[in-house]
Design brief:
By secondary structure, the protein is of the alpha/beta class. About 25% of the residues lie in helices and about 30% in strands. The protein contains 7 helices and 11 strands. A 7-stranded mixed sheet has the order 3-2-1-4-5-11-10, sandwiched between helices. A two-stranded antiparallel ribbon has the order 6-7. A two-stranded antiparallel ribbon has the order 8-9. The model has no long low-confidence stretch (mean pLDDT about 95). S-adenosylmethionine binds next to strand 2.
């Protein structure tokens, strides 16, 4: 209701294009890319369980799923017109290297579109601050300027992710040679808030950061 609608609006025309999905999960995006005209989609993921699901649920002749760490992406052996990644890059320890590696596996004129947890979220230990009526009125951020590993509890305890400042992220992309085309910190539509009223909290701070960039 928030990240996916915003991402979908920024996906370019994929007719005849080759696509790489970094952290493809169960392959739903690769499936959609091929159905939107992509000639070939490659999905990589660190989780063999996710890839097993992808091969079972979203299997098409034009899709190849590869068990690979995004840290090794420069060894993938192909070049792509479009690189996509949804909610994965906050698990990368070295975003400067990742940006350089992605740039190296893209064709000239290719585009990168990714989302990640917003730096306000990766820098928060305690999340929303609620008033006496139980209504969220603020959000707590701590150690924003200290980039590095953070541990969170999300479905399971001790999930490791990496906080980076907004400027770290932009500078890594520019340093790799990308031109930033669009930045989005999505807020919910009126309809989304009607269906899920808790989404009103998204106007206090963004949860996601979405960036579209081009290899010139
Ligand atoms: C929040 S899920 C998103 C999945 C998918 N992109 C989607 O939108 O449905 C994060 C995914 O990133 C994968 N992942 C985490 N660290 C990774 C790494 N270092 N290299 C490749 N994939 C990774 C996880 O296995 C998981 O499938």
């Amino acid at each position: 209701m928030l990240e996916q609608p915003a991402m979908k609006k920024l996906i370019p025309d994929l007719s005849g294009k080759t696509v790489l999905d970094i952290g493809c999960g169960y392959g739903n995006n690769c499936f959609d890319f091929v159905n939107s005209g992509a000639e070939k989609a490659v999905g990589i993921d660190l989780s063999e369980k996710m890839l097993a699901l992808a091969k079972e649920k979203n299997n098409l002749p034009e899709i190849t799923y590869i068990h690979m760490n995004m840290a090794d992406i420069k060894n993938i052996g192909s070049r792509f017109d479009f690189v996509y990644s949804s909610l994965v890059f906050h698990y990368s320890e070295d975003f400067n290297k990742l940006a350089d590696d992605i740039f190296s596996v893209m064709k000239k004129g290719g585009e990168l579109l990714f989302s990640q947890e917003h730096p306000f979220v990766t820098a928060s230990d305690n999340g929303y601050i609620y008033n006496e009526d139980g209504k969220a009125e603020a959000y707590s951020v701590s150690g924003y300027s200290e980039s590095g590993k953070r541990t969170a509890n999300w479905f399971v305890d001790g999930v490791e992710k990496y906080h980076r400042t907004f400027s770290d992220i932009i500078n890594a992309l520019c340093g790799a040679g990308f031109i930033i085309e669009h930045i989005c910190e999505p807020t919910p539509s009126d309809d989304a808030v009607k269906i899920r009223p808790g989404l009103i909290k998204e106007f206090i701070k963004p949860t996601f950061l979405i960036i579209k960039a081009k290899k010139p």
